[in-house]
Amino acid sequence: MNDPLTPYGNRPMVTPIVHAVNYEYRDFEVLRKITDGEIDGYTYHRDDNPTVRAVEKKIADMEGAEDCVVCTSGMAACALVYLTYLKAGDHLILFHDVYGAHYKISLILERLGVEITWLGADQSAHLNQYVKANTAMIFLESPTNPQCKIIDIAAARRAADRSGALLIADNTFATPFHQHPLRIGAHMVIHSATKALGGHNDLMAGAIAGSKADYDKLWFTRQAIGTTLDAYSASLLERGLKTFPLRAERMAANALALATWLSSQPKISRLHYPGLTNDPGHKIAQRQMQKGFGGMMAFDVGLSQDDAKRFISSLRVIVHAVSLGATETLICIPYLTTMLYLPPERRTSFGVAPNTVRLSVGIEPAEVLIHDIEQALMQV
Ligand SMILES: Cc1ncc(COP(=O)(O)O)c(C=O)c1O
Q1: What residues in the chain have per-residue pLDDT under 70?
Q2: Domains contained in the chain, CATH given
């Protein structure tokens, strides 16, 4: 029987958006083959969807993984990993400098009996000291959110191997254009695909790339709890992936130009961008990143939060908004946004100040961005 979508065998240029929730079984033998995994077939959206599957294969390719599970958000991806691999009595090592919502998940995990050690990114050099017999997982970001600190992924893997722990790397800030954590020691790599992979502030998705065995385990959890991405978002994500390398290259070039300029500005302090040769993470970043250092940076503006607020309110091109990795340059004060739900003392205990801003550099001309920052700094 001809496929109604490709009646002459000609392939559509875009993966069709399949909105169906359920699929007709042609006969019981087909049902058996699908349920026994003999053929790639579809039965129910919570199990799988062809539009989602197409984008999973593309992200797996980008990360050098055997397969990939795509789900409803970056935090859903993190939760899938925690739920799939941790049990009561296990020990999890997390870094303070990870996306703020991990703190909320940590409260849930502790309620379920998981023991958690929080480390500063600077303690990663001595990670061995914190690994215990029951350490089952080390979860890291590099560069970290929001301070853009660098963690040595290969060294973290050596530490994880002491107890047979899984090493999970959130690659959202680095992106697969610049960094492939699976090649340097991570067991699984996570993305908030809401960010640079999608790239246009118009979809929310998460991804976990790893081995085929991990795909099977994560698929089971996703199917059980129902966090399969919808087909329309998957199609938007697939569209974003087509221009992702171009956008990533431009963002990194823009970010390096901006960071270099910012580093000579007297009203800017504690600038963190791993591409700067004097950045404490530069040497390790050079080893584990390629083709540039991404589009994210963090710095302090003036002397107080009021200074940082005045600066942001004076920007005309750069947009005051959360999220990152978009075509537009975005700026926010993590203390007031991504870290809002941390207890107040936790918000500053690992280096973030009330006047720290996080900048996600977009694809506008670099000189336009520099000019915008220059005129806004005059108001500080
Ligand atoms: C590094 C990182 N990981 C995960 C997430 C969560 O992603 P999402 O907002 O798609 O759930 C974010 C969100 O900002 C992030 O910055």
Answers
A1: 1-7
A2: 28-239 (3.40.640.10), 244-377 (3.90.1150.10)
